[in-house]
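Appendix B. Extra example for self-study. Work through it before the problem class; the solution is given directly after the inputs so you can check yourself.
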Amino acid sequence: QKEVEQDPGPLSVPEGAIVSLNCTYSNSAFQYFMWYRQYSRKGPELLMYTYSSGNKEDGRFTAQVDKSSKYISLFIRDSQPSDSATYLCAMLKNNDMRFGAGTRLTVKP
Amino acid sequence: DGGITQSPKYLFRKEGQNVTLSCEQNLNHDAMYWYRQDPGQGLRLIYYSQIVNDFQKGDIAEGYSVSREKKESFPLTVTSAQKNPTAFYLCASSSSPQGNEQYFGPGTRLTVT
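Solution. Structure tokens for the complete assembly:
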């Protein structure tokens, strides 16, 4: 079993839809939970990070962490074609970052 | 402009040759990291350095070497001992000792034939 599991998709939604991206993990020692966005052939861009269970909002993005279920989510409201990218979840303990394989999202105009 | 630069963007080498990938940052970050990304897989940590003249192996350090002589620079050498060197290599840096808030460079695509 991988430490971090992420559905690779692909996921295709119409413009304006609410997108839900998810990851599960097995190691309860993870302390920080991150979401990165990666456009094709580019480096990942940090969207959000959280430390504790609960929700964190930044504009159209909401990150949710449920440590009891070992489950994290990223919600994108009013999705735009420019949101089309691969989204990577990542989890960190003691400088050891573990990444999901990424979910490929396409937002159609 | 502050950021992380990696050069070159694309690199081609023959099997059996060592090759060095450049990573420079002007963010004044103490910690720097090297990852490799393969299709369908998450990023995997090769090496990281929290301070000048010190670095630690990640999960897949075999066949790679690094140096950290300056705070701004963390070059990665892919040696001929690396069995599957063709990949997308990403450098990152962080101001946090824990390693959260890692910011990535644009990456170098290495192809070895």
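Self-check: The two ends of chain B are 36 Å apart (CA to CA). If your reasoning did not lead you there, revisit section 3.
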